[in-house]
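Before the break, one more example. Copy the sequence into your notebook; we will annotate it together after we see the structure.
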Amino acid sequence: MHFEEDPTAFRPMKVTASKDTPVGFETEPFTKKWTLDKGRIFQPWPKSKTFHNDYPSAHDLNLRAPIEAGCQYLEYMGEFVIKFFGKEYLGAKLSASFLGFVYPEDEVTIKGVVREKVAEGDAVRLTLDISALNQRGENIMVGTASGLVH
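Here is what the structure looks like once it is written out:
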């Protein structure tokens, strides 16, 4: 019997944060695909129909289709930085600004560049500029994240 791998399993990046990570380092990109069924699980559909899970409700707001809730694709950024910083990231800093929408079947690719490296005691704080682009190349979210590396 052939056993399939879990396609949603947590996989760390090939190169993760270290004290030796240089300013200007570009992280490995991380891609997630959003489907409407994910939005409908997150929202109480069909009991509650919103522009996040229902086409007519989205059309009422002149949206071409339902859009993913911002907190859902903010989670992609959170997963991205945990993959880069590892468990040391928990309790660190993350901020983001939303620039566009995520529609059904969109693929969101998150990538980062180390902007700053500052010694803090026996650790180093790395700060990343992060961007999220859809498959059309549109920047839908930008932000920063920082974490201590021991």
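The longest helix spans residues 70-85. Residues 30-35+68-149 form a domain with the Thiol Ester Dehydrase; Chain A fold (CATH 3.10.129.10). Try to locate both features in your own notes.
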